[in-house]
């Protein structure tokens, strides 16, 4: 899929969710992010500042391969890094709130309209 352009984050959001249309991709993101947060928090609590690198390394290190191997696309981060980070936080918050089905619906709607 060619690089998309957007005028605002709200325009970007449905595209971001569509790039995570498969539940497995979303769950790999969630797992990687929460693991990275846990390792970072553990390290910082122990006074080991280098552990702060765990969040991006583990988070993106698990999420990006999911795009290639599960989703079959490129991470939205490559074209829209700030909005993608914001999207990651929003998506994970929705998943933790039990709203994964809503994400699946948003992805399916965007893909239907844009393919």
Task: From the structure above, extract its key features.
5 helices, mainly alpha, 115 residues, elongated, 0% strand
Mean pLDDT: 94
Multimerization state: single chain
Number of helices: 5
Name the poorly predicted regions.
none
Shape: elongated
Say how many strands there are.
0
Distance between the termini: 9 Å
Q: Which structural class matches the secondary elements? A: mainly alpha
How large is the radius of gyration?
15 Å
The proportion of residues forming helix, as a percent range, comes to over 70%
Residue fraction in strands: under 5%
Offer a quick outline of the entry.
The protein is an all-alpha fold and 115 residues long. The chain has five helices and no strands. The mean pLDDT is 94.
Task: Describe the model.
This protein is mainly alpha-helical and 115 residues long. The chain contains 5 helices and no strands. It has helices at 9-18, 23-45, 54-71, 81-96, 100-114. α1 (9-18) packs across α5 (100-114) and α2 (23-45) runs antiparallel to α3 (54-71). The longest helix is centred in the first third of the chain and has 23 residues, at 23-45. The chain is elongated, with a radius of gyration of 15 Å. The N and C termini lie close together (9 Å). The mean pLDDT is 94.
Blueprint (SSEs and pairs):
Blueprint: H1 9-18, H2 23-45, H3 54-71, H4 81-96, H5 100-114
Helix pairs in contact: 1-4, 1-5, 2-3
